[in-house]
Write a structure and sequence with these properties.
Radius of gyration: 27 Å
Helix content: 10-25%
Number of helices: 18
Oligomer: single chain
Shape: elongated
Strand order of the largest sheet: 1-2-25-16-15-13-10-12-11
Distance between the termini: 17 Å
Structural class: alpha/beta
């Protein structure tokens, strides 16, 4: 599978009248492909293993594994709701008594199945489908296939986070500003099944302080609307299914056993760890946006321009007025077996048997690489499509193979679900860049783009260490590759020194950065400013560990040339200025090499369905208050599509999942 040579907008089928996404992917199915069967929803299935209780993977499974045992009968939502409700033509009807009866029956069946197979019942589901997840010996669990109430037995593959000014690229800014018909996701709920969400962050309307995050972390429940910790108009509900210590891949019973509560706050472990994934994803899908001064954007989205968006500290999510339902399935580290439970929870977040609070869109920025088509999570995604819930999933990455693995056959589950929207990762038209603040001269005050050196510790440095007056190195040592003379050092002492990085004529640089910084430091210089003839360097600049430094972009070098020559330039660096600027991308709209190319058609359908920006996406940083952080991966691409789906559903509330996706 390959991307089209000329990227097309995501504007097919029912979406054609509303908006585009980014790229679509296309390839013909091989002639040997299994002839598919389409059910009444249009979901394609091969059908040749449907009568077999044991999935192919289960037939050969060995040892202690996690398994989804599906019981016969429709899930409670499909069982109790009318076709009009399932087609999103009517609101769900309260059938709590019937739902509770189905739940009780499933729990009884699960207990019996666990006893019969000498397995541990990890959890049951009853809303989307009826079943139990068992942990036990594969051979003993296989014997459950003889039970008359068992529909299907499938092993579960542990799922991982799919990591490796996008609203302009996805054209959603055009949708916000469309006079009288602009859509922002209002009255649509996006479930983010992930590591939780830091709802105290300003991007979600929280107070945006470290103190608020710590206070919320100690709570077992989602804070109340009057707590000052959360905007309940953005985060209406949520649940933590696992707890901080959970890791499905651990052999420690305490760690591989979920410890749920009702506070889905994202985790920020020491050293940052794997935390922040869900917060970042949620911000991309439906964050309000953060102004340059750190306040939550509360203005009119229809009045925003592309230039104003690029000046914000964190741009708004694709559907900035959609609600977010965090369903936490990851601990601070590791993998999860809880995706099926999460999908079941999406239909009834508070578990009261009333489906009126169900989400409209589900974002799954997670998966298992090279997963089988009959993965149970994929089955649930297909089932939920019949129930009117639209699921978007990250296609998967080949980061473990350094971007040169079998990406053309790689498709993570549940991204390989026929009814879900699988999203690949493409470069956007812009990318984040570091910034330096110009304090003087006054007429040039403001921010300029460039790159911070990597060896110096900016986060721990004092403000006076990061502020200085700039003098130009003498022409005889313009690159700083030689030690400065005693006479030169007298002019440089106590100043920040400007030196040219490369020869303007040839673009070649005569020596490395460390030796230059050492020479400046030996001459008494307090910092280094590097001029460049390139707008952006793909390779970072090291410098040294004792003095700060910044490499200017070509445009910044040109802009500040007069001030540098006159000796009037005064600058400030700050760790918070990193990745706060935007610059054009040389690989705009190309597919990122690590992105999975997915299903090739032999199962009756082709994946991924679309591509969206997912490289160096800046979104909310967990525990960061008002700060952003840049992540890359199909995880970052998927929430753009989830946000677009929310815009479509706001405009067309009766659209089914089939109508909300490309054909």
């Amino acid at each position: 599978m390959r991307p089209l040579s000329t990227p097309r907008l995501f504007a097919k089928s029912c979406l054609a009248a509303t908006m585009g996404l980014a790229l679509t992917l296309s390839a013909a199915a091989p002639a040997s492909a299994v002839q598919p069967h389409a059910d009444e929803t249009g979901i394609v299935t091969s059908g040749d293993t449907a009568k077999d209780v044991l999935s192919p993977g289960m037939k050969k499974a060995e040892g202690n594994i996690a398994v989804f045992v599906q019981f016969k009968g429709k899930g409670a939502y499909e069982q109790t709701q009318s076709p009009a409700v399932l087609a999103n033509k009517q609101a769900p009807v309260n059938k709590q008594a019937e739902v509770q009866a189905i739940k009780t029956q499933v729990q009884s069946q699960a207990q019996a199945a666990a006893r019969q197979s000498s397995s541990q019942a990890l959890y049951t589901v009853h809303n989307a489908a009826r079943g139990v997840v068992l942990q036990g010996n594969a051979a003993q669990i296989r014997e459950l296939a003889r039970r008359g109430d068992v529909e299907r037995i499938t092993p579960i593959i542990a799922k991982e986070r799919q990591n490796a000014s996008s609203v302009v690229d996805t054209k959603t800014v055009n949708t916000w500003t469309r006079e009288n018909t602009g859509y922002t996701g209002k009255d649509v709920t996006i479930a983010v099944v992930d590591s939780g969400v830091d709802y105290t962050h300003a991007d979600f309307g929280g107070p945006g302080t470290a103190e608020a995050y710590q206070k919320a972390k100690d709570m077992p429940e989602l804070p109340s609307a009057d707590s000052g910790l959360i905007d309940r108009n953005k985060i209406a509900a949520g649940v933590d299914l696992v707890g901080d210590s959970y890791n499905a891949s651990s052999t420690n019973t305490e760690q591989n056993t979920p410890h749920p509560d009702n506070n889905p706050l994202d985790c920020r472990p020491d050293g940052f760890g794997s935390g922040g994934h869900g917060t970042h994803v949620a911000g991309t899908a439906a964050g309000y946006g953060v102004n340059q001064d750190g306040t939550t954007f509360r203005g009119d989205y229809s009045k925003l321009t592309a230039e104003q968006l690029n000046q914000m500290k964190i741009g708004p999510g694709t559907a900035p007025e959609a609600k977010i339902l965090p369903v936490r399935v990851f601990g601070c580290y590791g993998t999860t077996h809880m995706v099926i439970k999460a999908l079941d929870t999406v239909l009834d977040p508070n578990g009261d048997g009333d489906f009126s609070d169900k989400a409209n869109v589900v974002n799954l920025s997670l998966g298992g690489e090279f997963a089988p088509v009959d993965d149970p999570e994929s089955y649930i995604v297909n089932t939920m499509a019949r129930q009117g819930v639209f699921t978007v999933a990250a296609a998967g990455n080949a980061n473990n193979y350094n971007g040169v693995g079998d990406t053309y056959s790689n498709s993570g589950s549940p991204a390989n679900a026929a009814a879900g929207l699988s999203v690949a990762n493409a470069y956007g038209t812009t990318q984040p860049t570091d910034q330096m603040k110009v304090l003087a001269p006054e007429q040039q005050a403001g921010f300029v783009n460039g790159v911070y050196t990597s060896s110096f510790g900016y986060a721990a440095a004092s403000a006076d260490k990061l502020t200085g007056e700039v003098v130009k190195a003498p022409a005889s040592n313009r690159y700083g590759c030689e030690a400065f003379s005693e006479q030169d050092a007298a002019q440089l002492k106590g100043k920040w020194v400007y030196i040219d990085w490369e020869d303007p004529a040839t673009g070649k640089f005569p020596c490395g950065s460390a030796v230059r910084f050492n020479h400046v430091e030996a001459a008494g210089g307090q910092g280094v400013i590097l001029g460049s003839v390139q707008e952006r360097h793909e390779v970072g600049i090291a410098g040294n560990a004792t003095i700060p430094g910044f490499m200017l972009s070509k445009s910044a070098t040109d802009k500040l040339a007069t001030a540098i020559n006159d000796g009037t330039l005064r600058v400030e660096l700050n760790n918070d200025y990193k990745a706060q600027g935007r610059t054009s991308h040389s690989k705009a709209l190309d597919l990122v090499s690590s992105s999975a190319r997915g299903q090739h058609g032999s199962d009756g359908y082709i994946k991924p369905d679309v591509a969206a920006p997912g490289a160096e996406i800046v979104s909310a940083a967990v525990g960061g208050g008002t700060k952003g952080v840049a992540f890359t991966g199909t995880s970052m691409a998927a929430p753009h599509a989830s946000g677009v789906a929310a815009l479509v559903l706001q405009a067309h509330q009766d659209y089914s999942p089939l109508c909300s996706r490309p054909p």
